[in-house]
């Protein structure tokens, strides 16, 4: 903190009031610099220096296509500090409810369409190996370490078969678009002008067309009824101008959701067991519900659904 304070003293923001803004699931920290007339955000990535250059790079890509990403006013890449545009303190999660979610999600989907126009050159590929690397987190951290299960050979074969079906279907949909990877209600801000502000995108990759749509509409922190979600999914397809049957596009969306939620079961468990962040435990039940409910809908994944029902009941 002393090093951060010393750096701020070298900037034009040295006389601004300094306060804690927020933290996230990583080791990054955020502070607010305030004056009578304006506010700025300080991102402290000193414990995650490797994430800073990607953040700066992706910010440029997003701003270039008109996405409301935070403008970077000052940077100290050696020590891990940035001073950013402040979108305020209203996350989408703070305002979503049953009366406004369709309109707010529609605005957020428009931002996905803009993001998907961003340059993907040089971004890591969301390929088969990475899809499986992520899904394997469930087996290691959720099933074996959190639930303390011993996976027998038939369980392992079932998991391998189910996860292969999921990755196959994910890869069958259009690829080669910018993927934020964590586009949900905690990472979407409503600015004072009610614009959609996008944050926390430094882990962006090049992947499938439905990934960010799933992150948004099957949010691990809030859920709405399936009928409305499907309506929004098809609205997104139409705005993208994709010539795809309803059932096929919804299946693309659902299987992408399975991949993401299987991963998240592992991630939330790891955040608790390895990093001591128990706040994510309360989000596991909704993530598990998404996984089981979706897996039950399709023959390729019913075995997985029944297995998860059995070991979590």
Notes on the protein architecture:
The chain has 313 residues and is α+β, with helices and mostly antiparallel strands. 48% of the residues lie in helices and 13% in strands. Strands 1-2-3-5-4 form a five-stranded antiparallel beta sheet, covered by helices on one side. A two-stranded antiparallel sheet has the order 6-9. Helix 4 (101-115) runs parallel beside helix 8 and helix 10 (284-295) runs antiparallel to helix 11. It starts with a helix and ends with a helix.
List the keywords.
single chain, 313 residues, alpha+beta, five-stranded antiparallel beta sheet, two-stranded antiparallel sheet, 11 helices, 48% helix
Backbone shape:
globular
Strand share of the residues?
A: 5-15%
List low-pLDDT spans. Answer: none
Secondary-structure-based class equals alpha+beta
Question: Largest sheet at a glance?
Answer: 5 strands, antiparallel
Write out the strand line-up for the largest beta sheet, numbering strands in chain order. Answer: 1-2-3-5-4
**Helix and strand element order:** HEEEHEEHHHHEEEEHHHHH
Overall pLDDT level = 95
Please, what is the oligomeric state? single chain
Question: Cα distance, first to last residue?
Answer: 46 Å
Over the alpha carbons, how many angstroms does the gyration radius reach?
20 Å
Percentage of residues assigned to helices: 40-55%
Number of helix segments? 11
Tally the beta strands. Answer: 9
């Amino acid at each position: 903190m002393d090093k951060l304070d010393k750096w701020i003293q070298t900037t034009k923001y040295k006389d601004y009031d300094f306060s804690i803004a927020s933290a996230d699931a990583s080791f990054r920290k955020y502070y607010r610099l305030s004056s009578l007339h304006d506010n700025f955000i300080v991102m402290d990535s000193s414990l995650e220096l490797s994430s800073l250059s990607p953040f700066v790079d992706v910010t440029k890509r997003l701003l270039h296509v008109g996405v409301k990403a935070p403008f970077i006013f000052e940077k100290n890449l050696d020590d891990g500090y940035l001073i950013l545009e402040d979108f305020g303190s209203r996350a989408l999660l703070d305002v979503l409810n049953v009366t406004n979610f369709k309109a707010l999600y529609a605005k957020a989907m428009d931002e996905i369409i803009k993001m998907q126009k961003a340059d993907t050159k040089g971004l890591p590929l969301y390929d088969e190996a990475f899809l499986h690397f992520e899904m394997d987190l469930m087996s290691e951290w959720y099933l074996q370490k959190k639930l303390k299960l011993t996976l027998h050979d038939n369980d392992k074969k079932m998991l391998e078969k189910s996860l292969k079906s999921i990755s196959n279907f994910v890869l069958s949909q259009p690829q080669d678009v910018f993927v934020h990877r964590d586009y949900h209600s905690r990472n979407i801000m409503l600015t004072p002008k009610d614009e959609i502000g996008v944050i926390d995108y430094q882990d962006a990759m090049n992947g499938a067309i439905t990934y960010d749509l799933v992150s948004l509409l099957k949010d691990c922190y809030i859920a709405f009824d399936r009928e409305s979600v499907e309506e929004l999914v098809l609205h997104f397809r139409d705005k993208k101008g994709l010539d795809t049957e309803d059932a096929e596009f919804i299946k693309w969306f659902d299987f992408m959701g399975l991949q993401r939620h299987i991963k998240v079961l592992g991630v939330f468990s790891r955040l608790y067991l390895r990093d001591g962040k128990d706040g994510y435990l309360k989000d596991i039940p909704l993530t598990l519900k998404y996984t089981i409910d979706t897996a039950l809908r399709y023959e390729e994944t019913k075995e997985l659904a029944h297995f998860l029902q059995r070991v979590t009941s």
